[in-house]
Amino acid sequence: MSERARQQYRGYRMVQADLVKELAIAFAVIAGLVVVLAILFSSPDQPTLTAQQVATAHPAELEATAIHILDGQNLIAAYGPPYNHGSGSVQKIGFFSPQTWAGVTLPLDAPDVFILSPLSRVAPLDPALGVALSTFRAASPSQKATWETSYQGALDHARVVNGQLLMPPSHSGPLPVILGAYLNLAKSGALEAIINLNGRTYQTDFTRALLVLQGAPLTRVAAGQELLGPEWGQMKEPGNYPGAVWLWFYTLLYQIPPYATSSVADLLAGATVGVVTLLFMFIPWIPGLRDIPRKVKIYRLIWREHYARHKK
Fold first, then answer.
1. Which of 27-36, 224-233, 288-297 has the highest mean pLDDT?
2. 48-55 contact pairs (CB < 8 A, 24+)
3. How many domains does the chain have?
4. Overall pTM surpassing 0.85 (yes/no)
5. Which of 38, 120, 146, 278 has a CA-to-CA distance to 156 between 20 and 30 Å?
6. What gap in Å lies between CA 16 and CA 129, rounded to an integer?
């Protein structure tokens, strides 16, 4: 150490240190802790929920989901932007409606995308299916509604025997053939792949495949893993594993009024988080807020030893 350095640090206790050695030890300890904590508390690797799993374990549930897609009672049918021009899930506060402003950017005709079009691709292998699809497409809306109501009534009394869905007789027109083929296509494991093709050979957008099980299948799985909204599902992992803790504030809003009871809770929560984020970003330029640290003097507590030595 030079004489100048000795004079500069005079009065400070100096000890020799091997910085490289200290860094190596610190890295080894932290790496070990990361590995141990990851083994004990890491997120479980849950298998992907597929139509094949639902069709095999809960065939009636898959067909009920399909019926709701055909009769327009599923969530996507009347969802609104970005999928269609419906209003079922459109949220707005006065004139403020980003969802509507964005418009329909992912147009999606649920019956055609999720059921009719995939089955049309395999219809050449099954002449009876081709006839059933043509009959259904040519029918009037009232006739389709009659068939769908009849099939839904029969489905309510269906039984599953050895993995096979046994339906009682019904006046459902071509639906038994259509939905029977749909169930078999799902069991084959090819349903999501066909839905996702969207006219392209190579695909990286899996939006359609992710939406096909919306409704009862996804809700059942989410409930079993305690991932519903009232269970802080947006920030937690399945079971008791810690999740995205940084979402605590966003999720907290859904647990308190008026967010918990509002029909536009998503928009309210998003707007609130946005406003609070902007406040934090611009604190240095907001009179009053920027003066809080100086007035409460927390910095004097943090640097109390310094101020103790330099009392004024």
1. 27-36
2. 49/213, 49/217, 49/218, 49/221, 50/189, 50/192, 51/186, 51/189, 51/191, 51/192, 51/212, 51/213, 52/186, 52/187, 52/188, 52/189, 52/191, 54/186, 54/213, 54/217, 55/183, 55/186, 55/187, 55/191
3. 2
4. no
5. 120
6. 83
Which pLDDT score is estimated for 290?
Answer: 87
Alpha-carbon distance of 80 to 115, in angstroms, equals 20
Domain with 176 in it: 51-218
Amino acid at 210: L
Q: Are 241 and 101 in contact (CB under 8 A)?
A: no
Average model confidence (pLDDT) across the chain: 87
- The reply to whether 257 falls in a domain is no
Residue 274 resides in a domain: no
Residue 158 neighbours by CB distance under 10 Å = 16
Residue 141 makes CB contacts below 8 A (sequence gap 6+) with none
What is the length of the chain? Answer: 312
247 is written with which tokens?
């979402």
Q: Are residues 10 and 59 in the same domain?
A: no
| Same domain, residue pair 100 and 161 | yes
Picking from 64, 65, 62, the residue whose alpha carbon sits closest to that of residue 53 is 62
Region 204-227 average pLDDT: 86
Task: For residue 49, give the DSSP letter.
Answer: P
Residues 17 and 115 in one domain: no
